[in-house]
Amino acid sequence: MIDLRSDTVTRPGAAMLQAMVSAPLGDDVMGDDPTVIRLQEALAERTGKAAGLFFPSGTQSNLAALMAHCDRGDEYLVGQLAHTYKYEGGGAAVLGSIQPQPIEHAEDGSLPLEKLAAALKPLGDTHFARTRLLALENTFHGKLIPAEYIQAATAWAREHGLGTHLDGARVFNAAVASGKPVADLCRPFDSVSVCFSKGLGAPVGSVLVGGEDLIARARRWRKMLGGGLRQAGVLAAACLHALEHNVDRLAEDHENARMLAEGLRAIRGVKVLSQDTNMVFVEFEPSRCDALTAALAQEDIMMRAVYGGPTRLVTHLDVSAADVQRVVQAVARLMA
Prior knowledge:
The chain has 14 helices and twelve strands. The chain is of the alpha/beta class. It has a seven-stranded mixed sheet with strand order 2-8-7-6-5-3-4, sandwiched between helices. Helix 7 links the parallel strand 5 and strand 6 (163-168). It is globular. It starts with a strand and ends with a helix.
């Protein structure tokens, strides 16, 4: 099976499974699971933050971060297509009573400063929710957000008394693509959510990193949101293994995505819209899209359009260069 639907579909390998089986365990709700502690400390050190907190999912990690930054009736500035706004079930509004203020993205995935400034609510005016937080995402649809923009946007946020949060689900992809230490990408933000169940290959798990006070608030919200797990070291061990073994190899995924885009670009009836890091966005001839998807599935090649948009093809540790060639050949044959 070649599964290009997402980098969330990876399966843990033998070494990762062994790490999970042999992990020393405690009770993480009581704060004494040694494997969870080791993971939290390791990622906090790697990202240059004071503390970390393990979560079962990135959605819960992002939500706890928003709730740690904002009170009920507050507002956060966020991209219209950002995961924390569009694809996390409206949790900030429903569970946190936090109002999202969506901002239209620029072509590169950034949120233009002039649009952020226009959305900022007047301080002290009781007609408005209080703007308290700027939330960005990197990578965004596979795109590496320019470092110059992030510096400017977070500086603008600080000037206006706003906190800053990064949905860094794929921040290690961004680090590898930019050639910079992940700490450099995380430094401008007060909090960062890092996911291990995407390109890093763990079956479950995210870690929120930030200052000690913010992480203490997030710990309380995690418990309330149902994220207080007991012998969570079984899961944290997989994340630790991923952190120690699967970061540098993300460059292979990026190269495989580039090869996939290059191969598909040569096929009539296929339009490659973009390729960044480990994601390729393509449009197939509309009249043939459903039949092509079904025919590829018969050949154990999985893909799908994302939320009604263009088809997103994602490379990951379970997709090799040979698999990419097989996909390109199959698409060329079926589209001929």
